[in-house]
Amino acid sequence: MTVTWRGALSYALAVTMVSWLTGAAVDLVWQAAAGSPRAWASAWVQNPWNAAFVGAAVLTLTLTRRLTAPLPVWRVPLIDGSAYLAVLLVCAGLSSWAAGDEAPADSAFVSAIVALFTLQLPSAWLLSVWRARHLETVLTAAGTPSAPARTAGR
Fold first, then answer.
1. In sequence order, what are the residues at sequence separation of 6 or more whose Cβ sits closer than 8 angstroms to the Cβ of residue 96?
2. How many CA atoms lie within 13 A of 143 on its CB side?
3. Do 88 and 111 contact (CB within 8 A), yes or no?
4. Fewest Cβ atoms nearer than 10 Å: which of 16, 83, 144, 154?
5. Which of 31, 54, 19 is nearest to 128 (CA)?
6. Cβ atoms within 10 Å of 89's Cβ, excluding its own
7. Where are the alpha helices (H) located in the chain, listed in sequence order?
8. pLDDT 10s digits, 21-32
9. Which of 55, 60, 74, 92 has its CA nearest to residue 128?
10. What Cα–Cα distance (Å) separates residue 149 from each residue in 72, 129, 134, 137?
11. pLDDT tens sequence across 48-101
């Protein structure tokens, strides 16, 4: 049994986009309360590394769900959450390195901490659990896929 490409892509889009938007919305509330919404726009909207993160996260989660065997629901956030965090760390580190930061690894981990406080990472984990229950899979027999079948709560 494997996850279909369409199922893996919809899973990755839901987890990545909703968690990223959650982080952006929580940070907007914080920045508005602090009186500096321009800092929010430069960090979330105008930063091209955010688009790179979203694209890389969608690609990574799609490939992870498609190429790994369907797992029990409790194991999906462990694997996909680690992949999501790894993409976040790499993109944040590359962004800091491109900006000339002397310690890009430190900045990457600070970005991960901010993602925890803005609820981006917790929402990705929760969405991963929720969407894992609704993955579309196909049965494979002797290497040939059959009709799609929905799985629920393995």
1. 103, 104, 107, 108
2. 0
3. yes
4. 144
5. 19
6. 18
7. 5-34, 37-40, 48-67, 76-98, 104-117, 120-132
8. 999 999 889 888
9. 74
10. 16, 19, 10, 6
11. 888 999 999 999 999 999 888 777 778 888 999 999 999 999 999 999 999 898
